[in-house]
Amino acid sequence: MATLHLMVGLPCSGKSTLAKKIEREQFALRLTVDEWHIHLFGQDAEELEHDARHSLIELMLWNIASRALELGMNVILDFGFWAREEREDYRSRAKALGASSEVHFLDVPTDELMRRLTARNAQASPFYFSIPEAMMTPWIAFFQKPTPDELERRD
After folding, report:
1. Per-residue 3-state assignment (H helix, E strand, C coil) for the chain
2. Angle, to 10 degrees, between the axis of helix 133-142 and the axis of helix 110-121?
3. How far is CA 155 from CA 15, 107, 116, 144, in A?
4. What are residue 2's phi and psi, to 5 degrees?
5. CATH number of the CATH domain containing 71
6. Which pLDDT score, from 0 to 100, does residue 42 have?
7. Residue-wise over 7-41: b if at least 16 C-beta within 10 A, else e?
8. Of 5, 25, 19, which Cα lies nearest the Cα of 154?
9. Is the dihedral of CA 79, 80, 82, 87 positive or negative?
10. I need a labelling partner for 104 at 20 to 30 A (CA). Which of 13, 31, 129, 150 fits?
11. Which residue segment(s) compose the domain that 114 sits in?
């Protein structure tokens, strides 16, 4: 049975690093939205079009992911999944395709997230967004940590 892996956490929590590890260990297709976004549109985190572009890329990556799951491949969606409702939606989609799902949550304290953000912003990357610290604070407040029941694998 194919598995959909959802990478859950805020920027700088280590989602992409863990996704790459799972990709190797479980022979999974890794779809990291930020890598695609930056490749297509550059460092546009502060532009008005950013969110619409991001949503479009997520939709396109889900189309790839759903086909891979139908074919029996493991898939990793490295999107962040900040809200429980979004996580539940994707888990329902996986179930409808006959796939199991797992949530991988990286719970990093705020001070460590901010330290990592400062380090990330100090060097340009073709894979990660430079994010102003002022943008991160409201995101931390908005983020919904998964409950223990969400962390259980669903077949």
Report:
1. CCEEEEEECCCCCCHHHHHHHHHHHHCEEEEEHHHHHHHHHCCCCCCCCHHHHHHHHHHHHHHHHHHHHHCCCEEEEEEECCCHHHHHHHHHHHHHCCCEEEEEECCCCHHHHHHHHHHHHCCCCCCCCCCCHHHHHHHHHHCCCCCHHHHCCEC
2. 150
3. 23, 24, 35, 23
4. -70, 155
5. 3.40.50.300
6. 86
7. bbbbbbbbbbebbeebbeeeebbbbbbbbbbbeee
8. 5
9. positive
10. 129
11. 3-151
52-81 per-position pLDDT tens digit = 999 999 999 999 999 999 999 999 999 999
The tally of domains found in the chain comes to: 1
pLDDT range class, residue 127, cuts 50, 70, 90: confident
